[in-house]
Write a structure and sequence with these properties.
Mean pLDDT of chain A: 80
Largest interface: A-B, 55 and 55 residues
Helix content of chain A: 10-25%
Strand content of chain A: 25-35%
Distance between the termini of chain A: 51 Å
Structural class of chain A: alpha+beta
Strand order of the largest sheet of chain A: 4-5-6-9-8-7
Number of domains of chain A: 2
Low-confidence stretches of chain A: 1-10, 85-99, 250-256
Oligomer: homodimer
CATH class of the largest domain in chain A: Alpha Beta
Amino acid sequence: MNARSPSTPVASQLQYVLVAQRLMQDITSGRYPVGSLLPTEFNLCTQFGVSRHTVREAIRRLQERGLVTRRRGIGTSVKANRVDTRYVQTSMAISDLPRYVEETRLVIAQTEDVIADAPLAELLQCPPGQRWIRVTGLRYAGREKLPMALSHIYINAAYGGIRKRIGTIKVPVYTLIERQYGITIVAVEQEIRAGIIGAADARRLSVKPGSAGLVVSRRYCGDSDSTIEVAVNLHPADRFSYSMSMRLQAATGSDA
Amino acid sequence: MNARSPSTPVASQLQYVLVAQRLMQDITSGRYPVGSLLPTEFNLCTQFGVSRHTVREAIRRLQERGLVTRRRGIGTSVKANRVDTRYVQTSMAISDLPRYVEETRLVIAQTEDVIADAPLAELLQCPPGQRWIRVTGLRYAGREKLPMALSHIYINAAYGGIRKRIGTIKVPVYTLIERQYGITIVAVEQEIRAGIIGAADARRLSVKPGSAGLVVSRRYCGDSDSTIEVAVNLHPADRFSYSMSMRLQAATGSDA
DNA sequence: CGCTATTTGTGCGTATGTATC
DNA sequence: GGATACATACGCACAAATAGC
């Protein structure tokens, strides 16, 4: 179709893209060194023969990539001469830690004391023989009839005081612990894997035995990596998916 | 939890910030639920008594925060109703994705042109009928004999120039595109779900048909949410789990 | 100190292009 | 083809921050 050389980028007919590309070239080539000022917007307008709106849209792209900063009354200064993916911080919004709990309700089926045997100690990352409380229940989303998950929540026996409050209010268990014992969850480790739902769990979840499920295990850590709570949720495959998005964080122009 | 209380004084007199705040409130409050469409730009103009330019600037802020996506001819749809949580992912950011690829090798089985039908267009978030390139292959970790994933990579036909280079070097496909076409991946959306591995896929992965698998779909977005690449990986449940850790971060809260 | 010129930031109006239904 | 809705692009005016006189 078009005999363009393989290394040539597709030509965009968009004015502001063209201007942005030209400026990026001029920055990477060293025509506008790091620390120097770009020509003024008005200057670029006449230079490229486009409106100020277009120039600003082009510079906005440079700014989003962390190449320049703009300061009112000063101008647009070059901050970097290449898009550096190493230090570009990716902030991500996890869709559901608090929201997940707020919009679902946990119906508790069972609460029992357990002593951590070897495999459980592995999961909880605690020495074997420790006492824990295991809460088992079904989690429902909104007014859905079918449960979205079968939950097993393990609580360190040291925080057993919250036992009676679980399920009574729409607050995550770890928040209950944080409030009552004045501690803070410092980190969360999460593992997601797939699994087959066995006969017993399938009956509780109202799915066919042998169907696929998503197992989400979360470990809530306090100071010095101590395990405060571990939640294991088994989701039927067709009732839950885990999604998240990561965005490039635009460098804030403030050179604080 | 930095929800703005109604009594909080509004520090900014900027029109587009005010409009953006109002819209964010209406999204988080559920007036505009996730999946619904925002009023049209023209509609918002009359509603807030501002110009379209201002409305667009406000919506741009929502877009930068990952709250909405805009599609020409359709409208502005709500993607999420919460800007941020207390937790920020530390272990697996965009910067770590390249490493994942470097430590694995992709053996390509097939490369073909496809036209996006309705379901594929949904996955790729593109209009139906568009041309894409689909690369199918098996991904191996280290020197393992058994593949860790069956990969389907969809590449926008506009970036077909990288076709021959895939698999030849240990670099992610999206990096190839970024380099050759001078564009930047601005966001990544990821979805994880469970599924049953069918007969054909099971044979390629050397697993028993009907066993469980983890499906990880990643969508790499360029500017204005355009889809540049989509990668769908099907992992046998016993060969892969997705883990990450989040550490508490001081609430950003900075709306500035 | 105030004043002015410069430069980016905000905001308005309008027109046209393009994708979707 | 027409209606709708976002995308691009032009123009203009004024505000706010800065630097220099």
